[in-house]
TrEMBL record:
Residues 334-464 form the DOD-type homing endonuclease domain. This is Replicative DNA helicase. GO terms for biological process: DNA replication, synthesis of primer; intein-mediated protein splicing. One of its GO terms (cellular component) is primosome complex. It catalyses: ATP + H2O = ADP + phosphate + H(+). Keywords: ATP-binding, Autocatalytic cleavage, DNA replication, DNA-binding, Helicase, Hydrolase, Isomerase, Nucleotide-binding, Primosome, Protein splicing, Repeat.
Amino acid sequence: MISDQSLPPQNIEAEESILGGILLDPEAIARVAETLTPEAFYLQAHQTIYRAAIALYEQKKPTDLMTISTWLADQELLDKVGGKAKLAQLADRTVSAVNIDGYAQLVLDKYLRRQLINAGHKIVQLGFDTTEGLNLVLDRAEQSIFQITQDRPQSGLIPLSETLLETFDQIEGLYYEDQLPGINTGFYDLDSMTSGLQPSDLLILAGRPSMGKCLGKGTKVVMFDGTLKAVENIQVNDQLMGPDSKPRKVLSLARGREMMYWVCQKRGVDYRVNESHILSLKASGSEGRRVHGEVVNISVQDYLTKSQKFQQRHKGYKVAIDFPPQIVPIDPYLLGLWLGDGKLGDSRIFNIADEVIAELGVIAVREGYRLSHQPNGDRCDSWNLCAGENPEGFKIQLRRAQLLDQKWIPLCYLANTKAVRLELLAGLMDSDGYYCKDMQCFENTQKSKKLAEQIKFLADSLGFRTSIIRKQGSIKTSNFCGEYWRVRVSGNFEIIPTRIQYKKARNYASMRDWQVTGITIEPDGVDDYYGFELDGDGLFLLEDMTVTHNTAFGLNIARNIAGKYQLPVALFSLEMSKEQLSQRLLASEAKIESNRLRSGRLSGQDYQKLSDAIGTLSAIPIYIDDTATLTVMEMRSQARRLQAEQGQLGLVLLDYLQLMEGGGDNRVQELSRITRSLKTLAREIKAPVIALSQLSRGVEQRTNKRPMLSDLRESGCLTGDSLVTIADTGEEVPIKDLVGHSGFNVFALNLETWKLEKAPVSKVFSTGVKPTLELTTALGRKIIATGNHKFLTLDQGWVRLDELKEGDYIANPQILRLGTSDVYWDKITSITPTGESSPVYDLTVPKLHNFVANNIIVHNSIEQDADLVLMLYRDAYYNPDTPDRDLAEVIITKHRNGPTGTVKLLFNAELTEFRNLARNE
């Protein structure tokens, strides 16, 4: 039972024994100096005496009775601790210092318990404080406990002399040990420039999305909901269909110009790609390490360099896909019959096959229709499903589905279960389908191109071999000539539930796999390409279900650190699953191409390499969290727990920054808060933190594609003649004339009060030469900025210039005070490209993050919290003929404590592996 009068935990006798031992034995202080701080002692007098002993020890002086009493007297502290009598008493009560280590643990135990009590009181107060959000309260509570067990950086004021002594000791140790002060990344040229990764540092590793997966304009891809979308219309966060019938999320977009090629498929649609595009092919036949059916991902450039034998043995391939069940308004077989043998504007079906008529009778009974037969003389009789027990006849259902006056297949049928799609295809084949026994295929002819393309899509999605051609037809008796479309389908017909006996086709007799097809590649000149980066394995489907492809420097660093130092590495992956990360690590470690691992096409030799790699990686302390909606606080909590369980961490890796949940409306400011939190985490755990990041699309628009530090900022830039209002003088100064200056005030909008306030500028800088747009408002105000510069809108918050449109309202500073707000909403009248690239600039306003330029309120650039910023660049992506085809550059664009520059590495795309470049390469 604890009463309010209970004393905090303490062990006075142990404290006295420690101090007495220090006075008796000059070597004793060395045994406890690293364990105990003065604050660990309960009595103030004991803290003072121990602090004196530590000060003498650091000066390499003895800690005997005379020396300590003299030091205390010089500091006018001797009387406060009880005088020489107190010191003599401590020495007399101690027999020896032999057990001083044990006494230190007793004192430390009581000290930690007192800290725990203090933390408990603080947590109680936090629990009663309802002004803070619960997540923030939980994080602070956890941090209070975490501080007790960790060697925290000293947050108070300490003398420079102490820091200088520690720094000198570190330098001296490095001199004698001849090693880097930081943690080696495993890339020696990079380590040479950075001195290794430093504890407590935040490192940003950035690059454009994985290069080489772009298609020509107009190429259609399959979305996860079953719709088709042209590549130029794909947006970030769209979901594409993967070959495993699972979604692939679009993480970012890529645009540019490059040499384009036609990929011509013998049994599939032709499609247009850039030369960096990754083809996904299947090996035909076994040879060497390749086995039949193995998937090979290879760029168009590399494919063209391969032998004719390789090209003949590696083919394009398609897959069948699955969709979740959906409710359909009309029986799928019935709809297929009507689409083939029905009449526009009418619900009658013209078919005389006994099997079809019998099936219509079954449907009528099941759906509550009345089956009506209408003889038609010399012409084909018709059948109709009229209202019966079901008060709505077939015609009403067709009208409600918007089918009566136009034949087409609603999406709920095309993107449905395999059973529903097969029933629909059976109805089409039992009506308009002609079975050609000689060619072992079905032909379906339609006047409507849209319906023909939908039938082809339906058959493609089920895994059949298909083709579609345009034909000209004529009727001699009526002199009619018209255009129609013929769809040809072949494959495993026994799965199609046709009712007509003679249309129950036999299987495709050829042993050849109809889902693979030979390809040829033909050049088509330089043109625009459109691409995107996908999560997961990057594979997606073209409109005919052809599979195509859409790397891992940070992962290489993590593996090197965990392997060399045996220090735990925490890997937080918001993009890839832990299985996918494991597969990448295995591919790199075993030197087996990642696509062969994914397909399971391994030789006996591969299995041995894989077994060895699993054994090696299993002994490496890498820990993975693949929570897709991770927040900064959750990440910090996980890292703290891992350190508490495993000891000192070697690295924390986040993949990647833009996917981290923040909870704020302004994404630019939110990312700034996230990076500050990551920097705090690095200091807490005394380990480097690497955050992977994506660069802005501005890189693609420059002549020089090498990334710069400004590409990392999620904010845009203004041309040099943009006038910035100086708050203290009212003077308007071109932003280019402010470069290099700081500390002056500008006007910035406080979004909480909607008032303009004076706010200091911390930095003004140039961000290079970039394409620009000119914005004009109804008041005649104009400003020229990059497309990614953000403006404050009336209803959407901060919006990029290239996402604004005429008629939107943006915030201007209000000259006449007509209300409580300092903002006037001005209408955009035009946004036009300037047609040229211009030198552009930006500045940073801490806290408020905006300023007034050209009498328009614009967003500012966010200051970087990172100690080290690395950019990845591959010249081969932009310059296919470069001799550096297999090289990657690591560009150090910011280094708080050292030089910047460029490091070259070898990159193996098949293994997603970076390697050191030999000195003579």
